[in-house]
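Re: Re: ligand-bound prediction request (bumping)

Still looking for help on this. To restate: I need the protein modeled with coenzyme A bound, output as structure tokens. Inputs repeated here so nobody has to scroll up.
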Amino acid sequence: MPIPVDEHRKRHDPVSLRVSTVDPQQVAQLRRWNGLLRDGYAVGRQRVWARSDDAAIAQFQNPHPTRRSVLLLAEIDGVSVGAAEAHANPEEPADVEIAVLDGFRRQGVGRVLLGAVRGTFRTVASTIRAETYSEAGVAFALSEGLDVGVRESRQVLDLPIALAVGYTEILLSRHDPEIVHQDDTFVEERMRGRGIGRALKAANLRQLMSLPESASSRFL
Ligand SMILES: CC(C)(COP(=O)(O)OP(=O)(O)OC[C@H]1O[C@@H](n2cnc3c(N)ncnc32)[C@H](O)[C@@H]1OP(=O)(O)O)[C@@H](O)C(=O)NCCC(=O)NCCS
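Reply:
Sorry for the wait, this slipped through. Here it is.
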């Protein structure tokens, strides 16, 4: 379960920056927090995959029994500007992720969020590990005393989308397997005349012959 942290306030502007813990049972708050991480990680990147709100709800409303998690939201004058997510398993480094929205960077928000995580996990983990999503992330981590470990490049690729243009079916009765019945075959009108129907039937016959039930089939 998330654990409470004290409010952390920016040193040179003690009134405006407020860091608070997110209660995963407060779904609207959890969605806002997850959305903020998503938007912060996406800055300057073209194709981004991010955890959905539903996945976040499922993850945090059913927490791992031995993992301690802290979910933090940073606000300036009531506007959400940054978020942090950190998890600590016993005997392992704590995993930390931080995102600050583009228009609010270089104002110390990231540093305050990381400070809050460090404070919370002081007695829980002796090392922290962070994922970075940009050169700004690397520069920030280095400035906070982290070393660069693994460098990975992640990309999102389009999967080829197969268009269904036809189908065919063969009926085989387990009780009467000697004869199989070539049933419907259909090819979309604009795709006809290209041998698609024949190819579908041939492929289906090959599939039929791979079934043990068709071993005694003799007629089509
Ligand atoms: C990394 C990130 C959270 C930093 O947030 P931030 O609020 O801008 O960070 P801070 O203002 O607290 O910066 C603290 C120090 O980090 C360093 N730093 C931060 N961004 C930097 C940048 N773009 N270039 C160089 N140094 C940078 C500086 O030393 C800075 O201190 P300074 O402003 O007094 O020079 C933000 O850029 C972000 O959301 N990046 C995408 C997500 C990501 O990669 N997160 C990884 C976090 S480990």
